[in-house]
Amino acid sequence: MLIYTSLLNVSKPTSNKTDHTQLKVPRPPQVFSIPETSHEEIVEALSKMSTHFKQSREFQVEYADYMKNNRS
């Protein structure tokens, strides 16, 4: 069983620092579970719940492209 946490509507830090520890969550995160356990089933279930998730690329693909395009 997968537990997914959603941190939507996250507010910006109040100071000019770019420190990620100053992120403020305006409300408690939304937590829910799904019975799917395989990677493919999880992706399919979350894609049905969220158009944004469905249209997003997987992290490994996104990161590989980022690294390829930002080599010195």
Overview of this protein structure:
It is a single chain. This protein has one domain (2-69). The protein is flat, with a radius of gyration of 16 Å. Residues 1-13 have low confidence and may be disordered. It has three helices and two strands, in the order E-E-H-H-H. With 72 residues, it is α+β, with helices and mostly antiparallel strands. The N and C termini lie far apart (41 Å).
Mean pLDDT: 77
Q: Biggest β-sheet: count, sense, barrel?
A: 2 strands, antiparallel
What portion of residues is helical? 25-40%
For the CA atoms, what is the radius of gyration? 16 Å
**Alpha-beta classification:** alpha+beta
Number of helices, where a helix is a run of at least 4 consecutive DSSP H or I residues: 3
How are the secondary structure elements laid out?
Elements: E1 2-6, E2 30-34, H1 39-49, H2 51-55, H3 59-69
Antiparallel strand pairs: 1-2
